[in-house]
Amino acid sequence: MNERIDKLLVKAGAYFGGEGVDYSNFDPKKFAELIVRECSDIADKAEPYKANDLIKQHFGVEDKSIKVGSRIKVVSKFNVGARGTVNYIEPTGKLWVRRDGASSDVSYYPTEVIGDD
Question: CATH assignment of 71-115?
Answer without folding.
Answer: 2.30.30
